[in-house]
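Escalation from tier 1.

The customer reports that the assembly of two entities below gives different structure tokens on two consecutive runs. Tier 1 could not reproduce it. I'm attaching the input and our single run for tier 2 to review.
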Amino acid sequence: MKFIKKIIERFLPPKKWKVPVIILLGTFTGVALYNFYVSRAWSYLSDDPATCINCHVMTTEYATWSHSSHRERATCNDCHVPHDNIFRHYYFKASDGLRHSAIFTARTYDQSIRMLAPGNTVVQENCIRCHGELTEMVKANVSYKETLEGNGKRCWDCHREVPHGRVKSLTSTPWVEVPAPKSPVPDWLR
Amino acid sequence: MKFSLRNLIEKKPWTGWLLFLGTTVIVFVLGILAASIIQRRAEATLINIPLYELDEFEPRNEVWGQAYPREYEGYKRMADTSFSSKYNGSAMRDALEEDPRLVILFGGYAFARDYNQPRGHIYAITDIHNTLRTGSPDENTADMQMSSCWTCKGPDVPRMINEIGAEKFYSSPWSEMLSEVINPIGCANCHNPENMTLKVKQTPLMEAFQRQGLDVNATSVNERRSLVCAQCHVEYYFKPQGSYVTFPWDIGFSVEDMEEYYDKIEFSDWTHALSKTPMIKAQHPDYEIYKTGIHYARGVSCADCHMPYTREGATKVTDHKIQSPLNNIENSCMLCHRESKEELIANVYSNQDKVYQQKIILEDLLVKAHIETAYAIELGANEDQLKPIQKNIRSAQWRWDFTAASHGGSFHSPVESLRIISDGIQKASQARLDIARLLADLGYNKAVEMPDLSTKAKAQEYLGLDMDKLNQDKQNWLEKVLPIHLKKGEERQNKLPEPKRIR
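Tier 1 run:
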């Protein structure tokens, strides 16, 4: 404890600066909290598919899913996040989420969004997680890595319409009715 | 002396300034990030802004089509009447010709004159003009119907109700609205003009929800993908005073609940010409029957099968050619079911065949019951003797009609349909048992002779309907009277402003 106290003391500002520093730190925390609020950061802990369209670039994915049979059984996270253990689950969610938010902020995504290798791996796992009994008899539940080695196929190499359909681009689902995030402005201020 | 920030700044004041500036930069960048997040959130609402500004009650479907061309293209394809399934479809089919028993069942009611299977929404106005059920009202001939009859015929209805109020609209004679309701069921009946989200616009459904203390537009998207259909595809009745269109849902949705509702207020649509029974005409309780079926239980909405998502070039569009999924198995059933098209159709027909078979048994019983009761009346049966018989006939035919008029009910919920029909068979049989006893009491102990009902024409003749005159009157009306109304309507509508381009 003493050690930590010492480190903190090192960074304490001169006494006469105390008040401005407190105000500055308050500003800093306030803006950070505001960012947390306006980006709906807490919603990313949930499994609600509406979270995934906090960023509107995923609207097509949401719309096609909500018109598919998977909407009754599987949320986005059921397929796109690993479920074998809790550490991998949250690690994947965090790293994927961070990457997505960076790409979205910098606008470096493509018109047609595609999964990368980690996403492919996880979705293949999750197809098998639910449909394992069915896929067992096709070929001993091949992993994404094995498909890259020419050993078997990804599920959606054949089931190409499941569940998002073959048409996927930012503009492919005009006028779709999806749950838009509520306005960040509180009711009493409108 | 050991290092401390305090000492450092005291020694070199510029490091203090550096710290201050550094923090400022971080807060500044955080502010920019916040601005970016807000901007990106605003983008989401900007995507769905149409090219044209439309009025909430814009009745012209082609004007909506300017703003939403893809959907409108699909809508127009509803003009295709080439598809006929085993029992329904979108073709013009004469229900009375296909099953002349119906003429007797509707004896004394306009449905005995003319009863066709429904075509697509786009024909709603044409078909209500053409049907003999609306008669030929002009200066010399009184209206057969009130404007309640228009309620489900098009987007002009919410517009008129907004203008003159529901009470006044419903209680106007039918012919008064001939020049007002001229656009067939379309865009404005289900959609919000600003962004094409689904919105219930029809007064009766809104009121039915209000009476339960609910707001029909505060439902989920998926619920509304059925509720917009439930604006019309439901059981309803016209209140005797003022012909106010009302859904009889206050007790419940089942056939028994609604019957209880009607019995309580002693409602009847008409008195049967033969059996003098106070009858209830079931409209088309599609939504109510659908609610009892397996697809509803699994969360499937009406639009999922009747308006599936289809691919059009590089986009996905909800198919606005609203039609039987049997004509579009690949995009509807096969999204969930992996069987072949042929097998799926066979499955549907197998259910429908079974329901149909029982429905015909009930129909036969009802036809006989009406004719036998008429004979008992002829032999001098009194009101007290007839009452229990008529109660069973009313009840049995209500059950028959509830399933017969529910489009696709035999598929939507075959078990519920069969339950209702078998209940009806029991009640109709009871009625006939009582009639036989009554006839014996009246000194007649043989089977009542049945007329030849093999064709629509013969059945109508038996009821004493002068079809030639009715048809001739209608033809004259269509040629001479209707065009005047339509011209008036067209002139009125042409004065409406063109939609404003906003983007």
